[in-house]
Specification:
It contains 9 helices and no strands. The protein is mainly α. Helix 8 runs parallel beside helix 9. The radius of gyration is 17 Å and the shape is globular. It starts with a helix and ends in a 12-residue tail after the last helix.
């Protein structure tokens, strides 16, 4: 019984763990290149925690909207910290792509602003493109902090822009606040009352 209760709390503990990794990333990037490997380790730990908090939450039936909102907001905090690390470590490479980097930073806040203005709550769409963006970020971090190779940086920024545009349309289309919306198309289906199947693998 005690183990069952602890496991029900474990998804939230994993989210808090990911939140704690964010300031650790900031600390590490200012300690010099010899610490870059630990930045990569933190990113992989964040991905693992993000996968398993959803799996465990669904298994123990505690995947509440509140937990999903925490998960989404902590993801944002962690990856903003990670992107700051990229800026500190690779300013030249990012400045070369300022045409993509600047709008990506500026529109990051727009979906949540729309959610808040419409529903008085922040969003937690967990759309497919955001997940693809997270995967590309992870690979890009591995290449840049591990091998000082920025070959995927432009592609990662483009996917990031597409994911944010998709989130904006989701926030505009949804008739009411809800989480785990795969894409703007699925938000339109919800608005029209057309059912569709969600795949659990993509909502962890």
């Amino acid at each position: 019984m005690v183990i069952f209760i602890l496991m029900k709390q474990f998804p939230f503990l994993l989210i808090l763990f990911r939140l704690a990794l964010a300031p650790l990333l900031i600390y590490l990037v200012y300690q010099g290149k010899e610490q870059y490997i630990w930045i990569i380790v933190c990113c992989y730990l964040a991905l693992i925690s993000d996968i398993f908090d959803g799996i465990i939450a669904r298994h123990y039936n505690v995947a509440t909207p509140s937990l999903r909102l925490w998960d989404s907001n902590v993801d944002l905090v962690f990856w903003l910290a990670a992107i700051w690390c990229m800026w500190v470590g690779f300013q030249h490479e990012i400045k070369e792509r300022w045409v993509l980097a600047l709008p990506l930073i500026l529109i990051e806040w727009i979906p949540d602003l729309i959610y808040f203005l419409r529903f008085r709550k922040f969003g937690c769409a967990h759309n497919y493109l955001s997940k693809l963006f997270g995967i590309f970020l992870l690979i890009n971090f591995t290449l840049m902090f591990g091998f000082e190779n920025s070959i995927l940086l432009t592609s990662t920024m483009l996917i990031g822009l597409l994911s944010q545009i998709d989130r904006i349309f989701i926030a505009l289309i949804l008739p009411n606040h809800c989480c785990d919306i795969p894409s703007a198309y699925h938000a339109w289906l919800i608005k029209k009352g057309i059912p569709f199947k969600k795949y659990k693998l993509f909502h962890s």
